[in-house]
């Protein structure tokens, strides 16, 4: 049993990352990393989930739901920052688990991260498709429904069934574009991300600064609507359920840690990128949700484009902003897809570097210096998933996968502080063990708020992962072989 819980020292991980043909280009500074974080965070959450969570669960108290989720993410973010500065290696929570909890836990968290990153990219691609179709309609270009919807759908009564659609072509197209960009190079990807982040930040700030003049404070009363008698539907239980739902909006800051091996000065810059991006986005979420629920009665926000509904409610004064919001959403969702796919390729790269996956996943392109095999495979799976399946099932899987990863990272800090107290930590999580324990608690509470079906899918996914590990990965593991990579 010991072989399943053997760990790699953080010095060994760093040494392996910076040697041989598997070395990545270190070209990212703190500004790039912060923009990657913002690019990964601001997307479907602010442009879609804000309205839905307000209408169905929290009412105007969606502001509190964002604050609760943000605090929970801050606890996890502090733990991520310690590990990212201490072990500046591609792989994020997978690598941290390998250094603290052992190979089996590293495999579990690596397999879990596929839910967050790969399926997350597919989920956002479906949302991107919806905004593109709507924008095209505004300018007189009609995309047939059969070519912009998933051929499969899920209903509690009907189960999985056919919709009559052929393929979600826009979702497939954006995944192909991002895949090509990621293969070409990390610098080009970071530059593209920076441009689209500036676009979506400008649109969001315009909405807040101009929209606040049209707010009707009567829409904020009651701030916490009375509970309907069912857990999670308004009242304080609705605020908690809402915080679990909008947690999806914060996913992405942890993807910064997957780029540690491409950062110029990771010991200093990784904590800056993680914590600064999380703080900026948390403030923006609170401002946007407050203005939105002040513009429109919360019951009217259960729509795919709540920001656009808020602009319509303001009347002619803000009508000119509607197309800009859609462009901002398209740009914003594009950067989220890029960051999540970047994260997934680096997870695959790290797992293959440890021989837990076929070594081809770790191949570096001789010209572009990117893990091109992992990138193409990630893009292929995301393309098929985004083209065929609906957003609902994918979104819930992404949330529970991310929450599990956050809890594991927080637990890893506790373990590492006990097993390696003397190790150099350029950034130290404050108030240990309080902060990591609170991070675990917040993650557990929000996981418990998700539907039972989501838990069943998570357990089925993990069971499949364990079958692969025990039949292939643990036999091939680099840790159990004496030879080195060719």
Short account of what is shown:
With 486 residues, the chain is mainly α. The protein has 16 helices and two strands.
Description of the molecule:
A hairpin with a 3-residue loop joins strand 1 (152-155) and strand 2. A two-stranded antiparallel sheet has the order 1-2. It contains 16 helices and 2 strands. It has one domain: Amino acid/polyamine transporter I (Up-down Bundle). 65% of the residues lie in helices and 2% in strands. It is mainly α and 486 residues long.
Short descriptors:
486 residues; mainly alpha; Amino acid/polyamine transporter I; two-stranded antiparallel ribbon; 16 helices; 2 strands
Number of E-state strands: 2
CATH topology, by name, is Amino acid/polyamine transporter I
- Average pLDDT taken over every residue: 85
Contiguous runs where pLDDT drops below 50 for at least 5 residues: 482-486
Domains counted in the coordinates: how many?
Answer: 1
**Order of helix and strand elements from N to C terminus:** HHHHHHEEHHHHHHHHHH
Structural class: mainly alpha
Assigned CATH architecture: Up-down Bundle
Count of helices? 16
Q: What is the approximate shape?
A: globular
Q: Percent range for helical residues?
A: 55-70%
Termini separation: 29 Å
Rounded Rg? 22 Å
CATH superfamily: Amino acid/polyamine transporter I
Largest sheet: 2 strands, antiparallel
Give the percentage of residues in beta strands: under 5%
Largest beta sheet: strand ordering: 1-2
| CATH C-level | Mainly Alpha
